[in-house]
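Hi R.,

As promised on Friday, here is the backbone we talked about, encoded as structure tokens. Could you run it through your design pipeline when you get a chance and send me back a sequence?
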């Protein structure tokens, strides 16, 4: 199995604002755009996304679009989901069905999401986003705002929020 560094180099991955590394692999520019309340979007986009032992967290963020996550190889990745009604859900993307790991995870738009490398060197997934991803449709979680929304999950919220700083927001 390739190392995290080899995955980054072979796939041309770059740092992602939410943590980890990514590269867009597809956008449906051969189709008419989909109209959303936030503007026109591609009907579908996809990325490769990698968490590593030195960048192991995908920090809390909210997307407007629905996202399908597919585990490809490497170590498992744990997902934490906070639904608008306050319900908490977790899933582990990975290859070992005997341990309850799943190959695919669907996350509806409007659900707060954080992820972390469960253990090991790296985990590589891909994401398919519909309507297509646009940074304007993503909100990075801020600790105090998320704690106000999900007071029963304060420890979890604070554990996976991106450290605040001048470049800690997207779009």
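Update: got your reply. Pasting your designed sequence below so it's all in one thread:
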């Amino acid at each position: 199995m390739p190392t995290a560094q080899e995955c980054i180099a072979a796939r041309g991955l770059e740092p992602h604002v939410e943590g980890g590394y990514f590269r867009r692999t597809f956008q449906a520019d051969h189709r008419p755009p989909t109209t959303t309340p936030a503007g026109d979007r591609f009907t579908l986009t996809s990325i490769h996304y990698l968490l590593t032992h030195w960048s192991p967290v995908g920090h809390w963020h909210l997307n407007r679009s629905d996202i399908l996550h597919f585990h490809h190889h490497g170590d498992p990745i744990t997902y934490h989901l906070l639904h608008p009604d306050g319900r908490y859900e977790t899933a582990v993307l990975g290859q070992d069905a005997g341990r309850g790991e799943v190959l695919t995870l669907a996350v509806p738009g409007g659900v707060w999401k954080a992820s972390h490398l469960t253990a090991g060197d790296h985990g590589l997934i891909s994401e398919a986003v519909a309507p297509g991803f646009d940074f304007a449709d993503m909100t990075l979680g801020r600790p105090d705002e998320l704690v106000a929304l999900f007071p029963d999950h304060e420890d979890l919220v604070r554990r996976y929020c991106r450290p605040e700083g001048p470049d800690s927001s997207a779009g």
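One thing I noticed while checking it: Helices lie at 4-11, 143-149, 154-160.

Thanks again,
M.
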